[in-house]
Design a protein that fits this description.
Blueprint lengths: L2 E4 L15 E4 L2 E3 L5 H4 L10 E2 L1 E4 L5 E3 L13 E3 L6 H4 L5 H11 L8 E5 L3 H13 L2 E6 L5 H7 L4 E4 L3 H6 L4 E6 L8 H4 L2 E9 L11 E2 L1
Parallel strand pairs: 8-9, 8-11, 9-10, 11-12, 12-13
Antiparallel strand pairs: 1-2, 2-7, 3-4, 5-6
Helix pairs in contact: 3-4
The structure holds zinc ion (ZN).
Length: 219
């Protein structure tokens, strides 16, 4: 579902693309395109959406995603990749990238100079740090693994690294963050993260968590 490649053939109505264009395909290859969600470009909420892999296509066959050598995709679900962007570097943007870029833009976690905490430094977290630095944010990576500090600071240029199991470090950082982007997929407590936020801070949850109601602005 992070498919990149080159166009080899186009349908008569797919005039936006031409042979040899660099393109990508994300998690979706189909949707009804007529419901209220599709009309708002929210095809991921469409009850008839078709996933790129392990889904039933309109002809009743199974979708196999990027495991195939070639794929036929409706133009609505094909994205142009700029000439100067290498294909291998583009692929993660089609799932991990959009999973963090979309909430950052949609909920306004992008104001330069603001302080963002990125929880977890896996596939989602590492692109989140790169986007955040490009937006001009001050970035703290929050992780259970002290071994990730070097990658966070030296390679991804994060400003700060917090070990979430170190209660002293977490205590010092309380109330210092404007935004938190939580990318951890394992079940974990939200409260220690919420404590890091300033009043009216925003926390965007990208995965499952033990949900706790609170007066902070959860997005
Ligand atoms: Zn729809």
């Amino acid at each position: 579902h992070e498919i990149v490649g080159v166009v080899t053939e186009t349908g008569s109505d797919a005039k936006e693309f031409k042979v040899e264009d660099k393109v990508g395909v994300g998690c979706l290859v189909g949707a009804c395109q007529t419901c209220e969600y599709c009309k708002q470009s929210l095809e991921n909420l469409c009850s008839k959406m078709i996933m790129t892999f392990n889904s039933t296509d309109t002809d009743g066959t199974m979708t196999y995603g990027g495991y195939s050598d070639k794929i036929v995709v409706h133009k609505r679900f094909v994205y142009r990749i700029p000439e100067n962007l290498p294909l291998d570097a583009s692929a993660p943007l089609l799932c991990a990238g959009t999973t963090v870029y979309s909430p950052m833009k949609y909920y306004g976690l992008t104001e330069p100079g603001r302080h963002l905490g990125v929880v977890g430094l896996g596939g989602l977290g590492h692109v989140a740090v790169k986007f955040a630095k490009a937006f001009g944010l001050k970035v703290a990576v929050i992780s259970t693994s002290p071994s990730k500090e070097r990658e966070a600071i030296e390679r991804l240029k994060a400003d700060k690294f917090l070990v979430s199991r170190d209660s002293e470090q977490m205590q010092v950082a309380m109330g210092t963050m404007d935004y938190i982007l939580d990318t951890v997929s394992a079940y974990h407590e939200l409260l220690p993260l919420i404590n890091l936020l300033k009043p009216n801070g925003k926390l965007s949850q990208r995965s499952r968590c033990n949900f706790l109601l609170c007066h902070y602005y959860l997005v």
